[in-house]
Amino acid sequence: MWLIVGLGNPGEEYTRTRHNIGFRAIDTLGDRYGLRFDDKRGKARIAEGSIAGQRVALAKPFTFMNLSGQAVTSLTQWYKIDPATQLLVVYDDLDLPWAALRLRERGSAGTHNGMKSIVQLLGSQQFPRLRIGIDRTPPGWQTANYVLSRFSREQEEEMPQLLGAAADAIELIIREGFTAAMNRFNGEGKKS
Asked: HEC states along 121-189?
């Protein structure tokens, strides 16, 4: 089984912000397989089903970004999974160029508050993640304002392709394993 958690903030006002690209990526994946976020469990909206013959639970925490670890730890306990091999966290990353995808099997939280919460409450950095590049904070902007701002019109036009590539990466992880997905998606750079 895979638990795939997209990070973001609940509420309509956050839907199209940079910080919510994790939510949008797993929405895209869920749409491909007819999975609907109809259930609530462990402080998250859940869509359960099957992808590539494996059981999956897609999750969107409703704890707000900075408390994402509460939902993730609760869900890993509920599903009785090993985070090192059965958890995938999908989130925005300021340190990657716009539309770049990077898969890592483990690592630090960096400057991302949602990831800091997950690492702290799981007590480990040993879990896979898919980082989606949103580019660095522009000069004169505060980081918090930037991640809570909306994408440009040009970026929104590129969004279906980017979200499709993120969903492709997740599918490949489930179907062929993390190494195959890293070999295909890491280093490809911008998806435009």
From this structure: HHCCCCCCEEEEECCCCCCCCCHHHHHCCECCHHHHHHHHHHHHHHHHHHHHHHHHCHHHHHHHHCCCC
